[in-house]
Amino acid sequence: MIGRRESVSGAHFAFTDRWGGVSAAPYEELNLGGAVGDTPEAVAANRKLAATSLGLDPARVVWMNQVHGAEVAVVDEPWGTRPVPEVDALVTARRGLALAVLTADCVPVLLADPVAGIAAAAHAGRPGMVKGVVPAAVRAMVELGAAPERIAARTGPAVCGRCYEVPETMRAEVAAVEPTAHAETSWGTPAVDVSAGVHAQLDRLGVCDRAHSPVCTLESGDHFSYRRDRTTGRLASYVWLD
Ligand SMILES: [Zn+2]
């Protein structure tokens, strides 16, 4: 259910694994993604199970329509009947409102400045990292009063740089923007390390309180991996402030 959970000065970070939900194969068990072919009933039940296990009201968890871009939405209440925006980062100054990001190999990025009461969740796959979705989220936080030196950043389970094989030209394109993302697979072919790129971006912005998950989704049978399984579920990562 909840693979990892951490609290820092009233900021809460949580990352699910694939177990403990009601979805049938190939989405078993805790698929939290609504656009992957699973039944809406199962996804709703799973979202309720995950929120309840975290002590959250499922109606106070804010999701987004992720499109591998770098747009940020500032949110202070659940969407309700409004359309869910196509963005890859959410920022809130509302304590108690949880922000959620869906992934299955991409890097989920959770950010919080507990002093200012500002939180953010971002979806950083290779395109989003290159486009700068995480720096965009940090800038939006700063505009609301956050300070980079107070921001705690946690990245969750994602495909690792030793598994994320890409064509040589793609690696070169990514490395031209973010050199630290240049990687090589364990079998010696070109690769990209998106998590390393995200952490380098955060470091340059002065966000020093950072930690990353040791879990590689492609290597872990306890996590969904799009690269491994193609038709599969989505993990969720949650951030909120007391
Ligand atoms: Zn790996």
UniProtKB/TrEMBL annotation:
Coiled-coil features, chain-numbered ranges: none
Enzymatic reactions: S-methyl-5'-thioadenosine + phosphate = 5-(methylsulfanyl)-alpha-D-ribose 1-phosphate + adenine; inosine + phosphate = alpha-D-ribose 1-phosphate + hypoxanthine; adenosine + H2O + H(+) = inosine + NH4(+); adenosine + phosphate = alpha-D-ribose 1-phosphate + adenine
Recorded GO MF terms: copper ion binding; hydrolase activity; oxidoreductase activity; S-methyl-5-thioadenosine phosphorylase activity
Cofactor(s), names only, from the UniProt record: Zn(2+); Cu(2+)
Domain of life of the organism encoding this protein: Bacteria
Keywords: Copper, Hydrolase, Metal-binding, Oxidoreductase, Transferase, Zinc
Family, similarity comment: Belongs to the purine nucleoside phosphorylase YfiH/LACC1 family.
Assembly description: Homodimer.
PANTHER family the record matches: PURINE NUCLEOSIDE PHOSPHORYLASE LACC1 (PTHR30616:SF2), UNCHARACTERIZED PROTEIN YFIH (PTHR30616)
Role, per record: Purine nucleoside enzyme that catalyzes the phosphorolysis of adenosine and inosine nucleosides, yielding D-ribose 1-phosphate and the respective free bases, adenine and hypoxanthine. Also catalyzes the phosphorolysis of S-methyl-5'-thioadenosine into adenine and S-methyl-5-thio-alpha-D-ribose 1-phosphate. Also has adenosine deaminase activity.
NCBIfam families from the UniProt entry: peptidoglycan editing factor PgeF
Descriptive protein name: Purine nucleoside phosphorylase
Gene (name only): pgeF
